[in-house]
Amino acid sequence: MWLGAATVAALMAAFLSIRPAHAAIHHAALVIQHASGSVITRCVAFAENQITGLQLVERSGVPYEAQNFGSIGGAMCQLDREPSTVPPGCFGAGPYWQYFHRHGSGWQTSAFGASSSLLHDGDMDGWHFAVGANQAPGNVAFSSLCAAPPAATAAQAAPAPNHATPIPTATPAPSPSLEALAPSDSPPPNAGLTSTGPPRQPPKATALGPWLALGSTAILLLTLAAVNLRRRGP
Amino acid sequence: MIRHPLAWGVWAIAVLAAAFIDRNPYLQALLLLVVVNVFLPYRARRRVGTWKFAVALALVPILFSAALSRFGQHVLFTLPAIPIFGGRWTFDAVAFGASTGLALVLTVAVFAVVQSTVRSADVVAILPRPLYRAGTTVALALAFAPKTLTAFQSIREARQLRGQRTGWRSAPALLLPLLLTTLERALQYGESLDARGFGSGRRSRYRPLHWSAQDRLVLVASLAAIVAIAVLPGVPYNPYQELVPSVPNPDQLLAVGLLAVPAVTASLSRVDHAPHHA
Predict the structure, then answer these.
(1) Sequence-ordered list of residues with C-beta below 8 angstroms from that of B243, at least 6 positions apart, any chain
(2) A200 to chain B, minimum CA–CA distance in Å?
(3) Residue B34 forms contact with A (CB below 8 Å)
(4) φ and ψ at residue A16, rounded to 5 degrees
(5) Coil/strand/helix, residue A65
(6) Does A1 touch chain B (CB under 8 A)?
(7) Does the interface ipTM go beyond 0.85?
(8) Cα–Cα distance between A42 and A44 in angstroms, integer?
(9) How far B132 CA sits from the closest chain A CA (Å)?
(10) What is the pTM of this model?
């Protein structure tokens, strides 16, 4: 009995020790379009495999007010100080913050609230303060926001102070990004990041290990079923 | 054989947690395999319910999800603007429904296994004293339903053998003997409870339920699986975000493996040719 428990504990420890470490730095872009048409953009670096849309906004440093609606997720009530006061019930009557994901070369309405939608490396989120459904923000290419990801440093994931600077929507040029990831003529002195070499691609090779583990577990279970089928029931 | 109801209860909770927290289809398929494995040594005790019910349970959520959800990026086809069903039918919605259906099938399968492995007498035996009478009553009432169904079927068969009709029109002629049979059985139950001294003085413990080594092993393994699921959650499967499910981590596979312990102990134990309780 205790031998069995010890075996289980040892197996568990063995499995835990072979969990892969997450090393690569990932990037996601953020596009915020105000009702006036002005657009601000951000490129956010993160160490995790994925972050939520709300985390993206939070780490970009843009001030926001969100309200949690339980299982539906969080709703954006105020973003970058628009509207000037949070309306009662979060949404108010007029325009509201509409939430989009970049898919291919266009925007698509998010099926989720910002707190439950997930962004991976290379994803882009769009926010538009507008009236009526499906008012997508203007077209911005991801490569123009997160052009050359620099080498990884430890300070990447920390939230930076906010200095949002709206720019006209006609020229969706990269704004001075908080982590100084976007190409810029005069890099801010506090960035401490240098662009070295070509953009690093995350390793795309499919790992064979998990598949082998899955397959062997299935085969073990099938063998067990065969053994139990051959025996008479009680 | 694992007999203790608490061990089975913790096992069932662990399987349900594994089935519902991540909803990864690979894990759900493995879990279904585990549940079938655990059921196999006990298959002689109970006839499995119709597999058609399980298939229907899996298909209905797919149909509902595909017909009512308009989200997702992988469009199957687009219907013209009919009020409810019009619009884009997406493969994402089908996958979401399939995942829900699989979780439902797993739930029903887990309860079917627990129903065939746990004896109601054992459950009543481990109840705390204040609940003992209520528990006995509930156990008797639950046992009544299948027996009434059997009585109904035998009355119908008797009528068929006599060449009488068994349709809806003959319902009164069927119901009266059924009522009489049920009343007679209730009186028998009451007499047998009386003969066993039910409700008179303190409750004695005849053949108390012990924790066998297998019971404890299953309990420890199931608790470990619950802890593993709670502490090391995987990426929840959400077809609207990523259609292709991620391959489960080794520790998730470990949790599933721990849940197969009842099947492993059954396959290692001696074959019991003279069962104590059939």
Answers:
(1) B74, B91, B92, B95
(2) 23
(3) yes
(4) -65, -35
(5) strand
(6) yes
(7) no
(8) 6
(9) 29
(10) 0.61
